[in-house]
Amino acid sequence: MQQIAVMTGYSVSTVSRVLAGKSNTSPQARSAILRSAQEFGVLDELISGRLLINGVIIFAPDRAFNSRDDTFYNEVIKGIVEAIAPHDIYIRYCGLEEQQADLKLFLKKASDSNINAMIIIGVDDPTIHKLAATLNKPCILINTTDREMLLDNVSPDHRAIGFSAARHLYQQGHRRLLCLTSLRRDTMVSRLEGVKEAARYFHAPFDEALNLVVTEGFGAVESEAALERWFSQHSQEQWPTAILCAGVFMAKGAQQVLQRRNLTVAQDVSLMVTDFSWTLSEPFSPALTAIQVPCRELGIEAVHLLQNRITRPHTPVFNLMLQGRLLVRDSVIRTTRSIPREHA
């Protein structure tokens, strides 16, 4: 610390505060001290110990800040808050649209001199990503696609999640799968590609006209209406033995359709979800077989990536993919003896 103080012209106490991650220093002092510490190799020893910033701002769609509107992203934010809690920094929040976000608002909030880092959740606007990369502040993306490869990103492995879910159904002997999903984001398109990959792996048919129902959102009412139309337009011989839903509320909508047609979940039609990140206020019966997405862990890992980017600013940009976990419950049953792929 004495050497850094001599090199930068700041006092030893100021150097100590910056290296301890304290917020009561000027941006100029902090920048100079961290630059000098980097040259001395000090930051290599701090990468897992301190978050060397004064303030961080979280950009996300407005619904992410209300657990009743988007529990997935709200859990992600809780993970960020949990990981930042031990550090002496503050968090600010700002809502942005997924596409065509308010650029002026973004620049105003991100350019605040008290904000040293950014985390962007679920915002796909490429212009926002390009602007973030020019602000000379570390920025981490969560659950989005940076096609310019400018920013570090942590995301669920959506393709693997889709593959794992469909694989479980095929292994239980199901052949007629119906996928109920929204494709408004690239992440969900990737998840569908995983489902199609599983179909190819098990030599099972997948015709989008017969095996896919697409909705705009993920709500129960919209999903119920879309699935009701599908059932009314197809003969009973074409009805699925299993429905794979993109979310829990979509599964609730599917259950309503099945009940009206005197079909019982599991016994008549198995039901599974690929995005189980929370529990309903009313428990789902039977308990849902699902892929559990590590929502809170996304936020925690984003903070670790942020620390890595601060202490090692010249390392290559990379993506961190988190795997889901299969939860085997009661809503999926075996229909026939499953056929291993090598014998299919």
UniProtKB/TrEMBL annotation:
Q: Name one Pfam family in it.
A: Peripla_BP_3
Query: Known CDD domains for this protein?
Result: HTH_LacI, PBP1_LacI_sugar_binding-like
Q: Which InterPro entries match?
A: HTH_LacI (IPR000843), LacI/GalR-like_sensor (IPR046335), Lambda_DNA-bd_dom_sf (IPR010982), Peripla_BP_I (IPR028082)
Residue stretches making up the HTH lacI-type domain: 1-41
Which key words are in the record? DNA-binding, Repressor, Transcription, Transcription regulation
PANTHER family, alphabetically? Answer: HTH-TYPE TRANSCRIPTIONAL REPRESSOR CYTR (PTHR30146:SF151), LACI-RELATED TRANSCRIPTIONAL REPRESSOR (PTHR30146)
Instruction: Name the chain's protein.
Output: HTH lacI-type domain-containing protein
Q: Which organism is it from?
A: Buttiauxella ferragutiae ATCC 51602
Lineage of producing organism: Bacteria, Pseudomonadati, Pseudomonadota, Gammaproteobacteria, Enterobacterales
